[in-house]
Structure formats: structure tokens, C-alpha cells
Give the backbone structure.
Amino acid sequence: MYQELIQKDKKIAVIGLGYVGLPLALVFAKKFKVIGFDINSKRIDMMKQGVDPSKELSSDDFLNKDIEFSSDPEKLKEAHFFIVAVPTPVDEHKIPDLKPVIGASHTVGKALKKGDYVIFESTVYPGCTEEDCLPILEEESGLQFGLDFKLGYSPERINPGDKERTVETILKIVSGSDAEALEEVAKVYGAIIQAGVYKASSIKVAEAAKVIENTQRDLNISFMNELSMIFDRMGIDTREVLAAAGTKWNFLKFEPGLVGGHCIGVDPYYLLHKSKELGYDPEVILSGRRINDNMPAFVAKKLAQMLIAKGKNPSSCRVLIQGITFKENVSDIRNSKVADLYNELADFSISVDVIDPYSDPEEVYHEYGIHPIMEVKEKYDAIIVAVAHNEFRKYQLEDYKQMMNSRPILIDLKGLFPKPTDDSFTYWRL
């Protein structure tokens, strides 16, 4: 397979052109013939014009690439090496939503031919590729797994907003359904990944490795968040404690904060789901998720208490939240915990505005029913710096004073600013 691909006798198809699929497809298109497929025709039209709908890539990234963009499933029949990179979210009950990956499996199955390879990159629980997706591929294609086509799994490691750790510079885990498949998959990915590939012993091992990467981070951050709640009751600044503890050589440097996005705030639920399905109810993972999911409520309650302590009625107060994307300097608003914070504050009858230079206002309204403001025109009783966008890092404490009423409160969730030495306004951080 590798030789035919590198000689451009056969094509690679990348299914799902979001934060993961598009940069991957464009990197493959440096050396291979690629079909970039997405069911969203509007996004496809943008990519044909050299525009990344996710605003991660520049128009130059599209230049001199051997790639065709299409939303026509028939086009996939020209490919022989399929890479599925669709999202795998959770539903409102925190249950894995496999509809995108199941739908992609049906689409690929219809295009599958003898000798083809199907590689999944979407984050799933261990066993999903072989137990949930494989039967669909066989049913749709009428082909026999192992004899007619092979399977692989190579978990995505895209870090949105990171211009240094890009697709090519991050070590890639690869796996295959048998020894031959593993070698071929490793060669294909190895042709574009400068950092090299790591050959996992099985597809399930590769799936499990991916899902615990973010679960580990989730648990470490939940510990920091729990510490911040404890230290807040003690009147101790959490970040000062962490700075002191961080002087020890083996202290892991994590920070408290809102945990959203499409990875850390989602992946643990896939492992939880599979574990419960097998009759084991995880305690550590679940407690970490519970702490992190409850942080917006903790922050909202803290602000309401601070307003009351200042002699203000929360229902008469205006609050500005800076940032609604799930992390700094990206436009991605998926699973934004800032939206949860907005709703928690609204439950206290506080009037809340949100401003974010990166997010798409229409997308924010469609997803969360929130109308972001484009510029600050009001005076606020409190301001919450929720996302560490570069634009917000430029602010000085004096700038915030000018934006607020008397007895102002600044909540610095990201710890961007040094604690003020004067008492002209109240400063608080996790």
C-alpha cells in the first residue's frame, strides 16, 4: 500500500476536515495525492478558496498541496487509504455520542474496495474501532475484514492554537489489525511525521493510550481546582502555594481553571462509559470530572458573595466576561465552560456580557444562546478574565479600573496579573 501511495498510484482520503482532519490532510498532501472530504459543503467551499473555517491555518498552508476537497461521497471511491478524523463528543447526559464516527463508517464502507486500509483518528474508548466501526465497514462493503481490507488506529494529537507543536512535530502513535497493517500504517505516517511514530501493540492499546492522555490531565487539574476551593476557605492564594511547591524538582506544575474543549473535558467520559459497561464504576476519574464540571458554579457563587460583601445586590449588577473559547488564541467554543459560568451567573440574576475577539458571534449564539458584545460600552461591577487571549494580556490593572464602577471586583481565572498592592479594587483568582 505504501509504495502505491507514495508513487501516487493510489490516494489517501481524510474524512472530517475540522481541527484535526484539515491540517493532517494538508500535511499528507505534501507527499501524497489526497481527497479531503467533509459533509459540510459550505466548509468545503471555503477550503477550495484556501480558507480554514477553524481559523487555525493561513492561506499559504493550502499552497502547492496535491489535494481535492469534496463533499460528494462518490469521490471517496477513488481512495484506497481512508483516515477518519471526525469529532467524538458527548451528549447532554455525558454519554459518548458516536453518531459522527458511526456515520463516517457507513460512508467509508460504501467506498471500500479489496486491499484498502481504514485508519481511525477520532478519540474513542478502547474497543470501539473493532467492535462498533468494523462491523459497519463489513456490512456496507460486503468485504471480509482481514482478507479483503485492513484496519488501523492512530490517535490525533492536535493542539489547537499551538504553532510550535504541529502535526509533523508531534510523535504519532500508530497501530494495525495485524503485523503487515502495522508496518504499512507506520510507513505512511512516518513519511510525514518528522518526530517519528510509536508502534502500539494493538488497536485497543492505541485507543486506550489516547483516552488516558487527557484523563490524566483532567485529574491533575481537578486536584488543583480542589486545592483552590480549600485554600480559598483558608484565605491562602493558591498560585502562591503552587509557586512555592513548584520549587521542588519533582512537583508537577498544573494550575486550576475551567476545563472545557473537545479533549480534556470530554475524553474521560469515553473511558467512564466503557468501564461502567464492563461492570466497574470508576471512582477517581468520576470524582475528577465532577470537580471540574462544578467549577463554573463555584466561581459564580464566589462572585455573588463578593458582590454582596461589597454592599451590592447581585440582581442590580453588571458583569463582563472576557473570553468564551475553550482556550486562549483559538476560535473553538466546543464544550466551553465559560458558557456554563455565564448561565450560573444568570441564575443569580446578574446581568452578564461576554466579549471575545476570536469567537464567531453567530456560532456562539447558535451553540449557547449568548449574544457576545463587540466592544465595551458599559461600566461593570465586576470583570472576569476567563480566557488568556493575547488581547487580554495587554490590559493593565488600571485599564480594568476604568471599565468598572465603584468598589470594583476583578476575577482573574487564568492568573494573568500580579496581585495588586493597593485596596482600590478587589482582586481574586483561582
Remarks:
- The two ends are 52 Å apart (CA to CA).
- The chain is about 40% helix and 15% strand.
- The CA atoms of residues 364 and 370 lie 6 Å apart.
